[in-house]
Amino acid sequence: MRRGCPSPRVGSVRSYSDDCSRPARRPPAGPSYKLKLALAFAAIYVVYGSTYLAIRYCVETIPPLAAAGIRLLVAGCFLFAWAWARGVRPQRNHWMAGAVLGALYFLLSHGLLYWAEQRVPSGLVALLVATEPMFILLLSWLLAQQKIGRLSILGLSLGLLGVGLLTGADPAINRSSLLGLAAALLASVSWAAGVVVSPRLRLPEDALMRTAIPLVCGAVMLLATAGVASEFQRMQWADVSLRSLLGLGYLIIFGSVVAFTAYTWLLQHCPPTLVATHTYANPVVAVLLGWLFAAEPLNARLVWASLAILGAIVLIRRGERKAAETPTAEVSNIADVRFRRANGTTF
Q1: I need a labelling partner for 49 at 20 to 30 A (CA). Which of 58, 68, 199, 327 fits?
Q2: What does the pLDDT read at residue 170?
Q3: Euclidean distance between CA atoms 26 and 49, whole angstroms
Q4: Biggest alpha carbon distance in the chain?
């Protein structure tokens, strides 16, 4: 729920919107509405978590920067056309803000993420990317935007323990590239930086256009970088496997369009804090799918690291809510920022 919005009465049903000043409409509570709710949560829990495995399949025969750029360009153009048809027209400063976020969210974060999945199991990458709330907290603290309480400090310590377990001297982990592990962590840092700076940037009020502009900007940057890195010259389309093409199609249709639609619909009908719980489920789904379908390792070290990182996220979120209850505290609401950037770490 947006900070400052009144809490609904216990047992009441209300609709949540991005602007809490607007009166909420009472959604239907019949079977069809409950089915939509269940399917939407399944989309953001399972589909977002499954994108890590899809990325792994995609980059098997498609260069990482080109794969990320193609996916984001198709999704971004689709959303841009949708918003344009609804009469939304971006301004010059919107494109400037989109270029900044496109560089942080997509050129750096997605570019590094796709590159890392060539060297690191998809479940492990998902867990490293799940450290994003830790970096958001640290960056906000360094910029004097947020205070760090005891719960947050405990969460940071637990998260560091989880990262240490993932990157420790385990034989299964050693087979993964150290550069891949570093790239996955840098991808998380870059995305966190985008979250921290996004409230200071002016983007369109319309949710579709607000998402489309950074996507298009990031896609153009990724494709340009792929060209400079000679990815297109080295890639032989005849050698692209069907599994990679299916992975790319899955990322575009389900990872970007379907899950994004479900995400924005949920944020209109549920508290953002409830919708944001998908960040707990996504790494677990990614680890299990990688183990089931890609023979990725699932050992005790990975299980303990998963519990440590997920526990860190819970503690950090609780620390933020506790700080938000203090009137003088200036706390960044991660759930609301996630709505502005549309999706979690895997859009």
Answers
A1: 199
A2: 54
A3: 30
A4: 61
